[in-house]
Write a structure and sequence with these properties.
The chain has eight helices and 15 strands. With 257 residues, it is of the alpha+beta class. The chain has two domains: 135 residues, Fructose-1,6-Bisphosphatase, subunit A, domain 1 (Fructose-1,6-Bisphosphatase, Chain A, domain 1), CATH 3.30.540; 109 residues, D-Maltodextrin-Binding Protein, domain 2 (3-Layer(aba) Sandwich). The strands form three sheets. Strands 4-3-5-6-7-8-9-10 form an eight-stranded mixed beta sheet, with helices on both faces. The chain is globular and about 50 Å long. The N and C termini lie far apart (36 Å).
Length: 257
Amino acid sequence: MTNSSDQILAERLADAAGAAIRPLFRGEWSEERKPDTTFVTEADRAAEAAMRAIIEAERPDDGIVGEEYGTRNEGAGRQWVLDPIDGTTSFIAGRPIFGTLIALVQDGWPVLGVIDQPIAGERWVGRIGHGTTFNGKPARVRSCRELGDAVLGTTTPHQFSGDEVDAFMGLAKSVVERKIIYGGDCYNYGLVASGHVDIVCEAGLKLYDFAALVPVVEGAGGVMSDWQGNPLDAGSDGRVLALGDPARLEDVLEAMG
């Protein structure tokens, strides 16, 4: 499965990505739109290239799934899944709430995850069978007695389409309006793991958007699932829920109808 050497490597990857990103934050860099209309910057590409170089040199038999440079060793049982800047729009806007996501996926299941915010110096690390840490200290979710008490986060309501809109609005109506936060991308999931946010609801995510989040949230005592309550793996459809208190999962699914 995974071991301490994998975790050490994952944190080295985060260090390398951060070293590539920090000099460009709120600085001068190039950007362009990808075919799917999302933005990519010089920092995204530099950070992923730095991480891939380390993996290719030290774990040549492992696979890589990266947002910017695609897949390597596609058939490998162990896949490093990389999102160099999750929240590129926040990076472009100079908001330090984006993050580098690093996951190790074994036979389709996320077993190790890192959420790294290189500007604030904040890092969550989760590994299956071990508790999640935040900057080296244990991180724990908080309990939530009812949905009306919950803080709900999502990156943007514009990510929802069709029936997804009704499902999200059903959930939003079940919480206090002033406790809904927008923006944050992967940072919101770190806040779930540290007990500051109760629920995150999103759609349209790719494997590199959510694989790293699963070990982090679940290692802190929370739960992540798709919108049917099923565990997340490489075949999931990109509709994602994260809850700090697993006891509220059925309530959330019911609210989403």
